[in-house]
């Protein structure tokens, strides 16, 4: 830190120069991210609530009301009228909270001391963080021939120490939806906590259904589902960080509660103590501003772009790994390794990612990617081919 103050003008100039090294969503060349540029109105509201602290909600009763209303609104999308939960930093924190709830619930009511969680091989890395933090053993269920969690593998791995089963609605690499209805029954019959990670699909599947896309049940309409992760900062167009965790029962929050005697509320269940209410307010605002119609249009446009890109790839001769269920396309060159193809695309200015299961180029068709961007990408892929 400098001894003497520096002018705002000079500081902003310096920050602009540093920020110029960042990639921008608006360029349409960030192809592997599940996040996107937030809606301008959501950004405006976010700044308005920066100084609020939901870690001490008694001081910020209006902002806490907003968080509760947001959780209720998201719950309505996910087939529950009285959900419990919080707006958090993202899917990672939400998944960690879910696993903490599952572990604590099993420890209190089943006396399980060395818990195990069954997750698909396609699960997000946040579950490995959760297991490490809470001394849980990860049991990875195999994937079937369609790259979804194998139900029989889950059944085979259930033990007396199983504290949770996890399924995905919108897998990170391929955007697929696991057989959640079957797993819900298995979890319910075995009295095991069942968590659905819908960080990616939770803000699109409900709207895609409304415009005619068919998806199997994945939410609280299934009686085995105990909690769901959903991220407003993905297809919800809220600013980063804005994730959500919803629970079916209040007791899942209660088993995580610790005393917070010097705050206005005497117990706290979230992982983070001090947490801004800005994400809740921005999510509240953008959900009201866009409404069902706005999100239906957005989800439909993203799927239109997904089909356009998939068909363009096939016309050139690339191999599409699976039929897209959500707005992710994974593909390979018939004669080139995925990492080599990724390097060629990187040299052309495209920021891509490579999936691990199966190994393939992965493109996430988020809101910042237009049809013109996809046309330019297909032209480059034609040249490479």
CATH architecture title of the largest domain: 3-Layer(aba) Sandwich
| Number of alpha- plus pi-helical segments | 12
Summing up helix and strand content along with how strands pair, one would put the structural category as alpha/beta
| Beta-strand fraction estimate | 5-15%
- Terminal Cα span: 52 Å
Please identify the top-level CATH class of the largest domain: Alpha Beta
Contiguous runs where pLDDT drops below 50 for at least 5 residues:
none
Number of strands: 13
Q: What is the rounded Rg?
A: 22 Å
How many domain modules? 2
List keywords for this structure.
Aspartate Aminotransferase, domain 1, Aspartate Aminotransferase, domain 2, 15% strand, 385 residues, 12 helices, 2 domains, 7-stranded mixed beta sheet
Would you kindly provide a written description of the structure presented here, covering whatever features stand out?
The protein is an alpha/beta fold and 385 residues long. It folds into two domains: 8-39 and 296-384, Aspartate Aminotransferase, domain 1 (Alpha-Beta Complex); 41-287, Aspartate Aminotransferase, domain 2 (3-Layer(aba) Sandwich). 41% of the residues lie in helices and 15% in strands. The strands form three sheets. Strands 1-7-6-5-4-2-3 form a seven-stranded mixed sheet, with helices on both faces. A four-stranded antiparallel sheet has the order 10-11-13-12, covered by helices on one side. It is globular, with a radius of gyration of 22 Å. The termini are far apart.
């Amino acid at each position: 830190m400098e001894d003497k103050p520096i002018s705002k003008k000079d500081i902003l100039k310096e920050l602009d120069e540093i920020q110029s090294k960042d990639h921008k969503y608006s360029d349409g060349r960030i192809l592997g991210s599940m996040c996107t540029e937030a809606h301008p109105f959501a950004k405006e509201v976010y700044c308005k609530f920066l100084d609020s602290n939901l870690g001490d909600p008694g001081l910020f009763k209006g902002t806490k009301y907003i968080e509760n209303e947001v959780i209720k609104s998201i719950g309505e999308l996910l087939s529950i009228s009285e959900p419990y939960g919080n707006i958090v930093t993202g899917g990672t924190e939400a998944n960690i909270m879910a696993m903490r709830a599952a572990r604590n619930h099993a420890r209190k009511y089943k006396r399980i001391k060395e818990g195990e969680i069954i997750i698909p091989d396609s699960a997000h890395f946040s579950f490995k963080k959760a297991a490490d933090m809470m001394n849980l053993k990860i049991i990875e269920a195999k994937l079937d021939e369609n790259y979804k969690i194998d139900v029989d593998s889950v059944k085979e791995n259930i033990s007396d120490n199983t504290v949770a089963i996890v399924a995905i609605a919108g897998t990170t690499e391929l955007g697929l939806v696991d057989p959640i209805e079957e797993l819900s029954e298995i979890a319910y019959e075995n009295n095991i906590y069942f968590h659905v990670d819908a960080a990616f699909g939770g803000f699109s599947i409900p709207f895609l259904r409304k415009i005619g896309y068919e998806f199997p049940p994945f939410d609280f309409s299934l009686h085995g589902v105990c909690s769901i992760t959903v991220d407003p900062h993905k297809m919800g167009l809220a600013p980063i960080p804005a994730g959500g965790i919803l629970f079916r029962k209040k007791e899942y929050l209660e088993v995580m509660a610790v005393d917070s005697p010097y705050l206005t509320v005497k117990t706290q269940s979230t992982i983070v103590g001090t947490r801004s209410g800005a994400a809740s307010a921005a999510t509240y605002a953008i959900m009201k501003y866009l409404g069902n119609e706005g999100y239906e249009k957005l989800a439909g446009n993203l799927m239109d772009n997904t089909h356009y890109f998939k068909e363009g790839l096939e016309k050139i001769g690339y191999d599409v790994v699976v039929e897209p269920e959500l707005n992710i396309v994974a593909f390979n060159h018939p004669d080139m390794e995925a990492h080599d193809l990724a390097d060629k695309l990187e040299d052309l200015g495209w920021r891509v990612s490579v999936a691990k299961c199966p190994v393939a180029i992965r493109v996430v068709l988020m809101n910042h990617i237009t049809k013109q961007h996809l046309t330019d990408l297909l032209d480059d892929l034609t040249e490479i081919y």
